[in-house]
Specification:
Shape: globular
Number of domains: 2
Number of helices: 13
Strand order of the largest sheet: 1-7-6-5-4-2-3
Bound molecules: pyridoxal-5'-phosphate
CATH topology of the largest domain: Aspartate Aminotransferase, domain 2
Distance between the termini: 29 Å
Helix content: 25-40%
Order of helices and strands: HHEHEHHEHEHEHEEHHHEEHEEH
Structural class: alpha/beta
CATH class of the largest domain: Alpha Beta
CATH superfamily of the largest domain: Type I PLP-dependent aspartate aminotransferase-like (Major domain)
Number of strands: 11
């Protein structure tokens, strides 16, 4: 995968009138987040997070997880992952992750950079998922002084290939982590989609499964910008405020990062949007599996569908103005739905695809 293979034709229409399937961060800002942002934009307030919105947003996150966790707001997922992993490690430690993990494939070495050299050790696993046995094998692969010492295991929920860990699978990974004294980190860029799809309580797939720290994604769920680093292991959170500041992640006008969370977390808005995105991917899957010659690459479980498409069909869809990534192996395409994807969008895309298939 070269970087250029991931650059799509530019969307020439400055009005962005069409909704695409390239990424959930192609979408705009959810109205509830926007309204909360506007509400926060009245007069002056204390800077650097010493404001009522930031306090309230952290409290609401504690209510969501039903536990007294430590919460820090940062700008993006790369920072959330890199800084929280760095906070778990000494420079001579290693992080066990899946070989398709965002921290490995899409963060430009930031986890190693902020970890001062702590190394990512890549594990395999079906459907983008780690297994307890795979983790144990990695821990025992080398135990000598010449190899970086495993310190953290990290999972992505939902995964980079749109699959889910069940609560039971996470508990088993948590137990394996505990057995070997590893910290348990979760990249939750699409955590909302996972909770909506599993229909579980957020606590069941985090701290009750042994997760020490979660990067709770906001941007892909409909925020303008921002992720929350949530430490269930509160001792581990010690001095994370300094690390975030040093890492360039302490927003001075913090209320504009935190306030939109209030709009999203109120009355389950975040889960409604995630469920909408998931439902649209389900519809996409249903429509695409009716088209002969299309192979689905991974189980459809959250807000994405991964399919193998013939190259001429990909070109024809690009020519019709659709944007989507085609970086999964040879011709593998990712169709990603977002909080505002509509049934008409999905049906229009599926119809264009059906018409673009080689006869
Ligand atoms: C989008 C995403 C992130 C965050 O990426 P940023 O561009 O740094 O915000 C992290 N992990 C996963 C799995 C993602 O899909």
């Amino acid at each position: 995968m070269s970087s250029s293979s991931r650059v799509l034709p530019a969307d020439g229409d400055v009005r962005c009138s069409r909704r695409h399937f390239a990424s959930d961060n192609y979408a705009g800002i959810a109205p509830e987040a926007w309204a909360a942002l506007e509400e926060a934009n009245r007069g002056h307030a204390s800077a650097y997070g010493n404001d009522a919105w930031t306090q309230r947003a952290a409290d609401m996150i504690r209510e969501v997880f039903e536990t007294p966790c430590e919460v820090f707001f940062v700008f993006n997922g790369t920072a959330a992952n890199s800084l929280s992993l760095a906070h778990c490690c000494q420079s001579y430690h290693s992080v066990l992750c899946h070989d398709v993990a965002h921290i490995e494939k899409d963060e430009c070495g930031a986890p190693e950079f902020f970890g001062n050299g702590s190394k990512l050790l890549l594990l395999q696993g079906e459907h983008g998922k780690l297994t307890p046995a795979g983790i144990e094998e990695a821990v025992f692969r080398r135990t000598d002084i010449h190899y970086p010492k495993p310190q953290v295991v990290t999972v992505t929920q939902a995964t980079e290939v749109g699959t889910l860990y069940t609560a039971a699978e996470l508990r088993a990974i948590g137990a394996m982590a505990k057995k070997h004294g590893l910290r348990f980190h979760m990249d939750g860029a699409r955590f909302a989609n996972a909770v909506a799809a599993l229909g579980c309580a957020p606590r069941e797939i985090t701290w009750q499964a042994g997760v020490d720290v979660l990067c709770f994604g906001g941007t892909k769920n409909g925020l303008h910008v921002g992720e929350a680093v949530v430490f269930f292991n509160r001792e581990l959170a010690r001095e994370f405020d300094y690390r975030a500041k040093q890492g360039g992640q302490l927003c001075s006008k913090m209320r504009f990062i935190s306030a939109p969370w209030l709009g999203m977390l109120k009355d389950g808005v975040w889960l409604r949007y995630a469920a909408q995105a998931n439902a649209m991917a389900r519809l996409m899957h249903e429509l695409l599996t009716q088209i002969p010659g299309i192979k689905v690459l991974f189980p459809q479980q959250v807000n994405s569908v991964f399919v193998d498409l013939p190259k001429p069909a990909i070109r024809a869809l690009y020519d019709r103005g659709w944007l989507f990534y085609n970086f999964i192996g040879e011709g593998g395409c990712r169709l990603m739905c977002s909080w505002d994807t509509s049934e008409e969008d999905v049906r229009a895309f599926a119809a264009d695809l059906a018409a673009s298939m080689p006869k």
